[in-house]
Design brief:
The chain is built from 13 helices and 13 strands. The chain is of the alpha/beta class and 360 residues long.
Length: 360
């Protein structure tokens, strides 16, 4: 089948956390025989900060720069594709794209909305009864979400979705793997994540407070936007970590910390991409607590769970290297068994080939 996506960016991770999700999933869909076109705007300086210097082999990437180009691509997508899929968070012309794809429903091409931040979208819709996206939802043939579990499915169905399926991020064993010669850990605790409004307070608590409480520990912070943030002296600033270096950096830490955004924690069932990347590298992890974690990794044996910064500091202090490696290896086994992008793509493939409105 020919699938045309309108998303933020496939070739650049610059202020675009969804890129690795798109790459893993679309690459696995291509391996199942689908032809993929990915349309992305030239926005937010992403094209100047590409980390994929060449377009990926599994997708045709089209960069557009004007409303006229956008409209031409929409028309072309409906003329040539089996599915036309609008992803959330494109960053420019989101409402126009959502409306255009909804209005194109009912023809030869099927349509879908792919929400990479469903908790935030649903919170917005709940707060604003006049939000124009409300009218689009019943028109799409399917709604896919980056995650969110039962609560997200129920909420989208409440807003009129014909069918809604969470498709979680996962691990690509070819990209995320243990280092051949890891050596001694460079840091005791690593956190990678961009500075975002609904995450910063949680980073203050779970990472920076932990660093203050355990001053003997070596802490490292990667991601964009932290340059002017006050840090304890035992925190090393890594700045932006390119995607190609995620595996090496994850594998260089004794423990890797995951801090989810507030909306993801409130909703539950929203594991971050970094959890699966780190698991693929056999990096032992600490995650902030949220409902549904047991569906992905077992607390205590495959992942460690912290309620606050004091918990994080104590786990870093108390978890020796041998225990950490055992947890990391168990997490990797679980990820390879249950959470690969090939498995996610198999689920999506089944839905794409089924009658409209059916569920699995």
């Amino acid at each position: 089948m020919h699938l045309t996506f309108f998303g933020s960016s496939l070739v650049s991770c610059y202020w675009n956390g969804a890129a690795t999700y798109y790459r893993g999933l679309l690459g696995a869909l291509a391996e199942r025989g689908h032809r993929i076109t990915f349309c992305e705007p030239d926005a937010y300086d992403r094209q100047a900060h590409r980390d994929l210097l060449e377009d990926p082999s599994y997708a045709r990437v089209i960069v557009y720069r004007s409303e006229a180009e956008r409209n031409r691509l929409i028309a072309q997508a409906f003329a040539e594709s089996d599915w036309v899929i609008k992803c959330s968070g494109v960053g420019v012309w989101d409402a126009e794209l959502e409306r255009a794809v909804a209005e194109g429903s009912g023809g030869d091409a099927l349509t879908a909305f792919w929400d990479v931040d469903a908790p935030a979208t649903l919170a917005r819709l709940t707060a604003d009864a006049s939000d124009p996206f409300r009218a689009c939802i019943p028109a799409y043939d399917h709604v896919f979400t980056y995650g969110g579990g039962p609560g997200v499915v129920a909420a989208y169905e409440h807003f009129g979705a014909r069918a809604c399926t969470p498709v979680y991020n996962g691990v690509d064993p070819a990209e995320h793997r243990p280092l051949n010669a890891p050596g001694e850990p460079a840091w005791d605790l690593l956190f990678m994540g961009n500075r975002l409004p609904d995450r910063e307070a949680r980073v203050d608590e779970f990472f920076l407070r932990a660093a203050q409480l355990y001053q003997e520990g070596r802490f490292a912070l990667g991601g964009q936007g932290w340059e002017d943030k006050s840090m304890p002296p035992n925190v090393a600033r890594l700045g932006h970590v390119p995607t190609a270096q995620h595996n090496r950096v994850n594998a260089s830490a004794r423990l890797v910390l995951n801090i989810h955004r507030e909306s993801m924690v409130t909703n539950g069932w929203s594991p971050a991409t970094r959890m699966f990347e780190a698991a693929g590298a056999a990096a032992p992890q600490i995650t902030d607590a949220w409902e549904g974690i047991e569906d992905f990794f077992m607390p205590g044996t495959e992942i460690l769970v912290a309620r606050d910064g004091a918990d994080v500091a104590e786990l870093v202090r108390a978890t020796d290297t041998t225990t950490a490696r055992r947890i990391g290896e168990a997490g990797r086994r679980r990820a390879l068994a249950d959470h690969t992008y090939a498995q996610r793509a198999a689920l999506v493939d089944t839905i794409l080939r089924e009658p409209v409105g059916s569920t699995v």
